[in-house]
Amino acid sequence: MGKILIVDDDLQTTTLLESLIKMTGHEATSVNLSRHAIQIASSINPDLILLDIMMEGINGIELCKLIKSDSILGKTPVIMVSALDDIGSKRDSFNAGAVDFITKPVRPGDFTKRITEVLGS
Questions:
Q1: Does residue 56 belong to any structural domain of this protein?
Q2: pLDDT surpasses 60 at 109
Q3: Beta strand ranges found along the chain (DSSP E)
Q4: Is the pTM for the entire model greater than 0.90?
Q5: Counted domains in the chain
Q6: Residue 121 — pLDDT band, cuts 50, 70, 90?
Q7: Residue 58 in contact with residue 32, Cβ under 8 Å?
Q8: Per-residue b/e over 4-34, b at no fewer than 16 CB within 10 Å?
Q9: DSSP code at position 58
Q10: pLDDT given at position 1
Q11: Is residue 121 included in any domain, yes or no?
């Protein structure tokens, strides 16, 4: 069972993603304020981090860069989950270190398949 951290300021999204993650047998933890994400991630040591791009404070792309620059968290795969579907957002996400990009609204089957592939289980 993998530990997945969801960082998204939308409560509906985090509730949906938590449900989908739990259906796959993984453990989900959510944080709705991007400024708390590094602290929470450091305390739970997740196997995967899901980041929204558009958040107050630190946006997901900047947060991904911070995660990837951390000596411990930097090895954790990051998937961006965003309503943005433009080439620039995708390019910026991958340049920041994301391993995948899932567009909202998520399609449950596609979402669970992709997190399972990244977790290797």
A1: yes
A2: yes
A3: 3-7, 27-31, 48-51, 78-82, 100-103
A4: yes
A5: 1
A6: low
A7: no
A8: bbbbbbeeebbebbbebbeebebebbbbbeb
A9: S
A10: 86
A11: no
The single-letter code of the amino acid at 97 is: G
Mean pLDDT (whole number) for 84-89:
97
Inside any domain, residue 62: yes
Burial of 60 by CB count in 10 Å (0-12 exposed, 13-18 middle, 19+ buried)? buried
In CATH, what number is assigned to the domain containing residue 95?
3.40.50.2300
Structure confidence by residue, pLDDT tens digits, 11-44: 999 999 999 999 999 999 999 999 999 999 999 9
- Domain residues for 74? 3-116
Are the beta carbons of 112 and 24 closer than 8 angstroms? yes
User: Residues of 68-107 as b/e, b for ≥16 C-beta within 10 angstroms?
Assistant: eeeeebeebbbbbbbebeeeebbebbeebbbebbbebebe
| pLDDT at 53 (0 to 100) | 98
- pLDDT tier at 47 (50, 70, 90 boundaries)? very high
Name the token pair of 7.
């960082």
